[in-house]
Every structure is written in structure tokens, then in C-alpha cells.
Amino acid sequence: MSTATSEPDTRGRQWGVLAALTFLHVTVDMYGGILPAILPVVRREFGLTLTAGVTLISILNLVCNGMQIATGHLRATKTRPLFIPLGMVMTMVLVLIAFLPHSVSMFPVLVVLAVVTATGIAILHPEALRALHALRRLPHSLGTAVFLNGGYAGYAGGALVASLLVSAWGLFGLVGFWVFSVAGLVMLGFVRIRLALETDEEGESAPAKGQAISFPQLMMLAIPVTIGSTLVPVFLPTRLNELGFELAFGGISSMVFGMGGALGALGWAWLAHRRGILPTVLISLSAGIVLLTAYTFCITARPSVWILAGAGFCLNAVFPLIVTLARSSRGPGLGARMGLIVGGTWGVASLTAMAMGPVAERFGTQTALYAALVAYACGVGVGGWLMREGWRKG
Questions:
Q1: At what angle do helices 11-32 and 107-133 cross, to 10 degrees?
Q2: Most buried residue among 39, 139, 275, 291 by CB atoms closer than 10 A?
Q3: What is the 3-class SS of 200-251, one letter each residue?
């Protein structure tokens, strides 16, 4: 192992680093969950159409994912983090939305704030994943699940916190998010984080490259999954608001969907260890499709949020398993793979959400939820094809 990573000596210290990385992941992804949860308020205050509002969210998501691809390969020979603290600071810019004049003419400024925030979210992810890979004393599948769960928890928690703060204090309530960011920056001063190098991946107990799945094939599986997991949280709060539910309930529903995935990732990771990752992906997706379908039919009933939790438990748990496969897949270097799997896939999903904006405005936001079901079903189809390919090749 390369000594350049200067990884912590003890298992306990590595758990501490994992906890810090997870908290940082939670914090930056909270900013990604703000706009969908408060979209009805943003539209009202700035006079935006549904298409304009969804476009704003999609720009944030698209820039976030595109910048991960653009920066994933940078600083490949560096072991000290730079993008992690820089990303933490840049995400705080979104809160400035609270201080803008309430006018439709502010839409370009909203776009600028979204782009800066998205860039901050983006540059942290590949570097944090490299830091995660440096923690060799921890089980990688568990470490990946815990870290990625931080993203689900952050996005979902951001939606809930934003809806509660805005319901209580208007857009000025968003200033409360700075408390989490400052806490994360202070934490960075006390935790020594080091980054894995590309060469550190050599010699690990991963499958031989000839037996590993092809990275392009893995992208084919990941893209429909991320499309489904983007459409639901982007359109669900608006759909619930249209049905007469209060803003906070939309935030709670988004949180339930995301947190269900955070819990599910741990449970499905256990099954994947026993049954294999691809079979687990197929089982999880199939069960989630059934539950999400049931939810769409009883969405007007408040208790149906528990069905949504079950859907999130199954559907949102799939992506961490795919990231685990990406680590040993056949393809480009580690940094590029991490940038593509966490950026490229969600980038396509963001474009899809942007395209769904005009469709939902014309045919209703419920259409977007049906589109999510179709995307997840496509994931099942690709996963089944990959399973057959594996069996055929022996």
C-alpha cells in the first residue's frame, strides 16, 4: 500500500474519519434537497411557472453532476483534500436566495446561485470518495453504504428542514442551514483526512478485472435507477401541494422516501453479501416498483406515506450497491469511475427531470411519478440482461 495516503493507523480512527466524511456528505447534500421541497413558495415569491421552477432545480442537479465528471480526475496525485472544504463553502451560497428581491427578473440570479451551490456539492463528492477508499481497515461495502446513506439522509433531511424553516420564517429561515455548514468546516479542522491514490487500488481483494462487470454496462444499469430516484423527490412535493397538503408534508414525504433508502441500503447490503449484488438489485427494484405503484394509487391518503417509505427502502438502496460494483469494474481509473458513476448517471437524470417539466405542466405532475416507475422498470430489464450475460459467460 502506498504510504502517500498517510491513512490513520487504527480502526477506531478510521471509523472517526468515516463519520466525519458522512457528516460532510449529509451537509452538502442537504442543500440539494432545498429547492424541490420549497418550490411552491419559490414559484409564488418569484412569479415562476412550473417549468421555470423545475428548470432551476434541474440546472442545479445537472451542474452538480456534470462538475463531478469534470473534476473527478483532478488532483489524482494529491493526498490532502482541497475540494472538500471548498465545496462546503460554495454550497452555502444558495441561502442568499432569502435576500433577493421577489421578482421574476431575479430568475437569472437564482440560476447563478444554483450553479455555484451545485459546483460546491459536485467537487466534494469524488474527493470524499477517494478519502473513503483510503480507509482500508474498514469493510468497504459497509463504508460505502454508510457514506452514501449520508447523501440520502442529507437530501431528505434538507427537504424536511427547508420546508419547516420556510413554513415558520419564510425564505429567511434558510439561514439555519449555515449552522450545519459551519459545524462541518470546524470538524475539518480536527479530523485528518487523506485521499487514496489511483495506485492504491492495485492488489486489493477485489474481483479480477476479467471477472468484473464492464463499467459502461454498469452505467446502463445506473442511469434508469437514478432517473427514477430524481423524478420522485423533484415532483412529489409539488404534487402533494397541488392535492391540498401543507408544504411541510411534502418535505416530510421527501424525507421519508430518502431515509427509507438510507435504512434500506444497510439491509440490502447484507443480502448482497450473501446472495450477490446483481440478484439483490433485481429483488430490491422489483419490490420497490410494486410499492411505489401502490403509493401512486393512494397518494391522496396521508397514511400512504408509509408505503412511500417502503418504496424508498427498496428503490433508493440500489444505487450504493451499484457504486460498490463500480469500484472493481472494468473501465477508466478510480477517480474517473467515481466521477462518472455519481455524476454522469445523475446528470442524465437531471436532464430527464428538466424535460419532464413541460410534460408535467401540461399533463399533470402525477405523470412524472408514472415516468419514475417506467425508469425503474427499465432498470430491472437491464439488470436481468446483465444477469443473463453473466450466466452465459460462466
A1: 160
A2: 39
A3: HHCCCCCCCCCCCCEHHHHHHHHHHHHHHHHHHHHHHHHHHHHCCCCHHHHH
Q: What is the pLDDT of residues 86-142, one digit of tens each?
A: 999 999 999 999 999 988 889 999 999 999 999 999 888 888 888 877 776 666 666
The string of pLDDT tens digits covering residues 263-278 is 887 778 778 777 788 8
CA atoms within 13 A on the CB side of 213: 27
Between CA 200 and CA 270, with CA 125 as vertex, the angle to 5 degrees is 75
C-alpha cell at 317: 438502496
Look at the pTM and tell me if it is higher than 0.70.
yes
Angle, CA of 210, 200 and 212, to the nearest 5° = 15
Gap between the terminal Cα atoms of the chain = 32
Number of C-beta neighbours around residue 235 at 10 A: 27
Cell digits of residue 393: 459467460
Q: How far is CA 99 from CA 53, 93, 115, 174, 248, in A?
A: 18, 11, 17, 10, 22
Q: 214 is written with which cell numbers? A: 464492464
DSSP-based three-state secondary structure for 90: helix
Q: How confident is the model at residue 41 (pLDDT cuts 50, 70, 90)?
A: very high
Cell numbers for 334: 478510480
